[in-house]
Amino acid sequence: MRADSSTAIHFLLASRRCEVNNLRHLLKNGELVGKVSQLIHTLQCERGASNLYLCSTGPAFADELARRVEEADIAQTPVLDSLARLEQTTAALPQSSRLFSGVASVVYALAMLPALRRQIRDRALPQPAMTAFYNDIIRHLLALVSEVTDTAAEPAVARALIAMLSFMRGKEFAGQERAAGAAAFTAGHFDDGVRQQLVGLIHSQEQCFERFVDFADEESAQRWLNQKADSGFERLRRIACTRTEAGSAPQEEGLSWYTLASRRLDGMKQIEDGLARTLMARCQGSIDAAERACDDQQADIETLMSRRGEPAPDYAVFVAGSEGGGLAEGWLSGDGLRPQLGRSLLGLIQQQDRRLQSLDQELSALRVTLGERKQIERAKGLLMQHRGLSEEEAYTALRRLAMSQNKKLIDIAAAMLTIADVLANHP
Amino acid sequence: MRADSSTAIHFLLASRRCEVNNLRHLLKNGELVGKVSQLIHTLQCERGASNLYLCSTGPAFADELARRVEEADIAQTPVLDSLARLEQTTAALPQSSRLFSGVASVVYALAMLPALRRQIRDRALPQPAMTAFYNDIIRHLLALVSEVTDTAAEPAVARALIAMLSFMRGKEFAGQERAAGAAAFTAGHFDDGVRQQLVGLIHSQEQCFERFVDFADEESAQRWLNQKADSGFERLRRIACTRTEAGSAPQEEGLSWYTLASRRLDGMKQIEDGLARTLMARCQGSIDAAERACDDQQADIETLMSRRGEPAPDYAVFVAGSEGGGLAEGWLSGDGLRPQLGRSLLGLIQQQDRRLQSLDQELSALRVTLGERKQIERAKGLLMQHRGLSEEEAYTALRRLAMSQNKKLIDIAAAMLTIADVLANHP
């Protein structure tokens, strides 16, 4: 390889091509996220149906449960297929080690589903354990989406992914609320534990949705804000969070809670589908833009080089980066480029450089936000694993710790993760 | 693809293999850094010789300059060759777009070298412009090293790279000090500008070397601290920073400054070579460790699966992540694994997950450090490009701004970069 303007041009074009490839890769990831969102939704429905089935006596809800199981099985296949494809395309990327490790957890959890379902049908599993298993599978699926979000190297797409991930997390807390409420209503009594759990789940939802609104596109955010208020469901929420004695008709109340909560979740799913479409549109948009830019650059350079051969008695160029008054006298004869050509090539290089830098600037800002979120998730996971807490119990524990020490939640999480290995080795 | 333990194992192994591949890729990058360090050193020598040549009259130093040019040409080839190889291996990586754009700048700058040298031989270029061109080429080479450092996905290697990069930056400031001092001594007078420049360069050196000591291995740090003090050179520094009137024998003083400064730089080069060796050793060490871990994992899993077929009347496993007291009752029959086997597979998955998480934890901490450094470098580059300042003038400007507003340097740099596009469009 020689150090001449042709080689410089070669790498300039390579840099652009790289961007296009990354965006194509991002598009594949976006597709995966859409399929995961679908699978999670069906698992949430299955969890809700399982709750009604276990909490009620007799064959009631058995058919609904069977239907939900079928839907979840159907939704599982496309996810597994894209994961298989993903492995082919991303094995070379540094971040893939974490992605694949996450996939292993997901697959392992999904592998347990059939057994879980058997024991549910046989009513061989207590309702809390059953719920915990579904929560766990979904948590692993969400962790996968978070890994994908983490590696998005294009700001607009990254924001769309953060919005989608936050919404999915909020929706999952809503799903857990549906399950907990359905169980309590059907059982007919709400103890302190259940009420605290519900309050915690409502709080967690609000946080996720605030975050979603911060990152979502105008339209989706507006759709959510319009849909949010559902007086009927809010009324049942108040009952659930305040009632102490058993209701008059537990079965009916349980069912109407389940129905309203399910309508709410279905509404969320519609917004989520909209988010998935936005995500895909942004990916495709960025790809088209990048491809156009790639072609334009190619064209500019061809014009540049076509004039390369012309006789140029005393041509000269700047050395890259030395522009500006201070070096006005800094002329140099180049390697066969006229001054204006040399400067335009230099201009192209600097332009690309500046553009990538400001992209990187935007991304690192987003990564800080993401990083904090990820640390909190991990700290939660740690508590769940080693103290056997549920997700919102773990979250509450972290929040209490933060308040009692008057620290930020992220600081508590970071502290917890720095001692993670100790916890791991002495569970 | 089916959701069973074999698939989970498949991705668990894929995750490990990924790590090994990344480390191999990192090794290639490390080799590049070593070659760049060599090229920079020869360019620094050439810059120094050019200074003596331009500042002295007559043919003095012409032979030395010719020899230096030859050495720089020799050092250039291996860098260009690894860059060519790098393009083959890293085109798929997201960060490569920035890397390649950096390569384009480097190649463009190197392409100007022959012309630069012609004009120096003909004494057709003023000394400051000449120096600025060399500084610029080296700045682009250092930016390349910084990109490589940025993408190191293994903490131990990343730290070695940060140490090496910081040292290389410090050494370059030392090289600029040699050039400025040689020019001033030979010219026989030091005006305020030169003195301020020298003070700024000394300050910048100290900052880089402090940073180096923070990240370097014990031995290299110690070697540096031992070598640092050189009374002879310090004496000349004091003269340079205080003297106002011309010296008695400018040529001799210029030469002795140049000689002492060169000895200092050669000493630095030796330490830098040591750092390059440490870097390679760490890469190789991590590769070996990762490969061993890969094999061990494979072995564990084979044992696991070999016992898979055994009759297991009522085997059961946990769902991943649901361990711990809270779910002690959470047993499930798995997909053909005995309880202990299921748990050991789950253990392997969780172990990998935890390990990758704590690696990521360490890395994001390092990235914060790196990110701030990178922002400051970029802000400097911006000022150099649009105000035509020299590197340490730009740095001084940033520092002044920070002090006057009582803000951190990084905040000033970040603010400057957020308005970069404005500056870019209205140079």
Automatic annotation (TrEMBL), chains A, B:
ANTAR domain span: 356-417
Occurrences of domain NIT (ranges): 34-286
GO MF annotations in UniProt: RNA binding
Coiled coil: none
Tree of life domain: Bacteria
Pfam family name, one: NIT
Protein name in the entry: ANTAR domain-containing protein
